[in-house]
Design goal:
Helices cover 58% and strands 0% of the residues. The protein is built from four helices and no strands. Helix 1 packs across helix 3 and helix 1 crosses helix 4.
Length: 106
């Protein structure tokens, strides 16, 4: 099996988010107001939008789902940049991202 590129992983995450968005939209059609009163607040809380201005690896899928529920949809180029920053660790000079550095004691 090939190693996935950041572009491939971004497209995979966007596809998963579209499936999740379809479920949210289906529930919304059966229960008016579900999206604004239940789904969005819960997703925003899980995405840590206020705590982390830049997504962490754990927050990224939820943020992609939130973007999928919006009018414009997710931006593949931005997702690729986030993945490269988080996994490759471009911001830390080529070392793993802070979420992936298991050498430090908690």
């Amino acid at each position: 099996m090939q190693i996935l590129s950041a572009q491939h992983l971004a497209e995979l995450l966007m596809g998963i988010a579209r499936a999740q968005a379809a479920i949210v939209q289906a529930v919304e059609s059966g229960s008016a107001g579900f999206r604004s009163t239940h789904a969005f607040p819960a997703l925003q809380n899980v995405a840590h939008l206020r705590d982390h201005p830049e997504p962490t690896l754990v927050d990224l899928p939820v943020r992609i789902l939130l973007a999928s529920l919006g009018r414009a949809g997710p931006d593949a180029a931005a997702i690729v940049q986030d993945l490269e920053r988080l996994v490759v660790g471009q911001s830390s000079g080529g070392s793993p991202g802070p979420d992936l550095d298991f050498s430090k004691a908690p």
